[in-house]
Amino acid sequence: MAGQTSMDTSKSVGSLCGRDVLRPRLRAARMDGLPASRSRIAELPPSAINAFRCVASPNSIATSSSLLSRRPAMCGIFFSLSRASHVTPTASTELLLRHRGPDATGQHRVAIELDSACAVQEASPTRVHATFLSTVLALRGKEIVQQPLKDATTDSVLCWNGEAWSISGQAINGNDSQLVFARLLEACAGQSTASTCNVVELVSAVRGPYAFVFYDAPNKRVYYGRDCLGRRSLLRKDAADGTIVLSSVCDNVSGEAWAEVDADGIHVVDLLDVHTAYPLFSDKRIPHRRFDQDQDSEVSFTLPFPLMNCSISDKATLDFSVVDQLRTSLLESLQVRTEHVREAVASMDMDVPNHARVAVLFSGGLDCTILARLCHNLLPPSAPIDLLNVAFENPRIHSQLEPGTSPYELCPDRITGRSSHAELVDVCPGRTWRFVAINVPYSETQAHRLNVMTLMYPHNTEMDLSISFALYFASRGSGLVGASNNGKTEPYTTTAHVLLSGLGADELFGGYQRHDLAFARRGYSGLIEELELDFSRLGKRNLGRDDRVISDSSKEVRFPYLDEDFIALALRLPVTAKCDFGLAQEADSKDPILALEPAKRALRLLAWQLGMKKVASEKKRAIQFGARTAKMETGKTKGTYVLSK
Question: What CDD domains does this protein map onto (predicted)?
Answer without folding.
Answer: Asn_synthase_B_C, Gn_AT_II_novel
